[in-house]
Amino acid sequence: MKFFIDTANLNDIKEANDMGILDGVTTNPSLMAKEGITGEQNILDHYMAICKIVDGPVSAEVISTDYEGMVREGEHLASLHKNIVVKIPMIPEGIKAIKYFSGKGIKTNCTLIFSAGQALLAAKAGATYISPFLGRLDDVSTNGLDLIAQIRLIYDNYMFDTQILAASVRHPMHIINCAEIGSDVMTGPLSAIKALAKHPLTDIGLQQFLADHAKGNK
Ligand code: E4P
Q: Most buried residue, 5, 74, 96, 166, by CB count within 10 Å?
């Protein structure tokens, strides 16, 4: 399973990249705003800064909601760097735009996926990735992991190339469960990625090893 980090924070992106396990980055307009990145040029510059840190797919989201606008914005985003993936919302105009980009060989990430039907449509349009929002479904008492499993089954039935990018991941168990289901990619915050490394028995064991080493070398 590929690991993407879901943030526009350059320090977090650097830290995850330095761990050597980072495959890509996802952003969205809210994550950009959270970092205080506003204004078209600043946003474009920020994507370039991310692309300089990580050698992997970087999802950059369009703001337009009409087909022509999405195509215009997406083409510009894709021209910025070879690793930019155009992130398109799951709306009817978005499906048309995904189909257009797929014909042009431009990679897309269909975002705001909350149902298997939406995932099926996006795959038929030729999306490179689809982003089912796991945590946001959990937030409304609906099992987000069930959706990931349902989409896995459908994509495998028809050998769709579209990759399942489990998004809105909130904690380490989400990551482990996504790996069990066979999600192609997960995107989550640095905290969830780092939490995978934690185990109290690892800490206790290491302390013991270091203490025994120190005793033996007195
Ligand atoms: C997807 O790519 C989104 O950026 C993201 O995962 C949404 O996560 P949230 O529900 O934590 O905002």
A: 166
Taking each helix axis as running N to C, give the angle between helix 144-158 and helix 172-181, from 0 to 180 degrees, rounded to the nearest 10: 20
Q: Are 31 and 60 in contact (CB under 8 A)?
A: no
Which of 2, 14, 52, 87 does the annotation list as catalytic?
Answer: 87
- Tokens 């499993």, residue located: 149
pTM of the model: 0.96
Q: Which residue has its alpha carbon closest to ligand 1 atom 9?
A: 168
Model confidence pLDDT, tens digit, residues 151-187:
999 999 999 999 999 999 999 999 999 999 999 999 9
- Report which protein residue has its CA nearest ligand 1's atom 10: 168
184, two tokens:
């192609």
Active site residue 52: no
**Angle in degrees, CA 151, 155, 157, rounded to 5:** 115
111 lines ligand 1 (CB under 6 A): yes
* Distances in whole angstroms, Cα of residue 183 to Cα of each of 30, 133, 155: 24, 13, 11
Among the listed residues 165, 181, 92, the one whose alpha carbon sits nearest the alpha carbon of residue 128: 165
Within 70-214, strands assigned E span: 84-89, 108-113, 129-132, 163-166, 185-188
Start-to-end CA distance of the chain, whole Å, equals 45
Say whether 66 sits in a helix, a strand or coil: coil
